[in-house]
Amino acid sequence: MTQHRKGLVLDFGGVLTTPLVPAAFAFERRAGLAEGTLLTGLYLDPEAIRLTEELERGGLTQTQWNEAAATRLGVPPDNLMGRIFADLRPESTMIAAAAAARRAGIKVGILSNSVGLEPWNLYDGYDLETRYDALVLSEAHGTRKPEPEIFRIVLRELGLTAEECVFVDDTEQHLPPAAELGFATVHAVDPARTVAALEALLGIPLTDEPPDQDQDQHQDPDRVTL
């Protein structure tokens, strides 16, 4: 008999929001940059990667990151992070599924590699502190995904073991360390397919009620890749 999980840990950006990459491409178009400039300048360059990881650990402010990234991209630094991701919107399907899970008695936590809260707050308007059972932002703990310690932190916050939980992330590289700890994992690519995978792992329906209007105007049992 399948042992269903009773905890759910969700990444934030790209899981509870619309995807990050289309938002980045939209910024490139607005800024007059060639497509792929962000990827090349910020996410493939070793020094830029180091700066982003330092930001996620809380060792660098968002303003400092904006200034360093702006120099690499040749754009103004003012609120650069906010400008890059201005097109992000709530992913209502996943938000509704998380709410349904909580109504069914599942503990739901958010585990996010944060990007600073000022001048732009990625989490503004999502009421994460009240809508979820745990909120772990990397900058508050000096560690980041995929480092195992941050997974242990969210488990302590939830009061559950990894073997009792499912972890969902749109970044596939974050999944193996969670799986090694005992999480079931879901690679989030398409919201409807992610919800279907969670229904199988949690053993409950997650689509029986419409999304919260406030938020938006047989496989391996331990790993579901969508």
Gist?
Helix 6 runs parallel beside helix 10. The protein has 226 residues and is an alpha/beta fold.
Provide structural commentary:
It contains ten helices and six strands. By secondary structure, the protein is of the alpha/beta class. It folds into two domains: 150 residues, HAD superfamily/HAD-like (Rossmann fold), CATH 3.40.50; 65 residues, no CATH class. Helix 3 runs antiparallel to helix 4 and helix 6 packs parallel to helix 10.
Beta-strand content estimate: 5-15%
Strand order of the largest sheet: 3-2-1-4-5-6
Q: Kindly give the count of domains.
A: 2
Order of helices and strands: EHHHHHHEHEHEHEHE
Level-1 CATH class name of the largest domain: Alpha Beta
Largest sheet: 6 strands, parallel
Overall morphology: globular
Counted by DSSP, the helix tally is: 10
Structural class: alpha/beta
User: What does the average pLDDT come to?
Assistant: 92
The N- and C-terminal alpha carbons lie at a distance of: 24 Å
The CATH homologous superfamily of the largest domain is termed: HAD superfamily/HAD-like
Count of extended strands: 6
Percent in helix: 40-55%
Low-confidence stretches: 210-221
Radius of gyration: 18 Å
**What's the architecture of the largest domain, going by CATH?**
3-Layer(aba) Sandwich
CATH fold-level topology of the largest domain: Rossmann fold
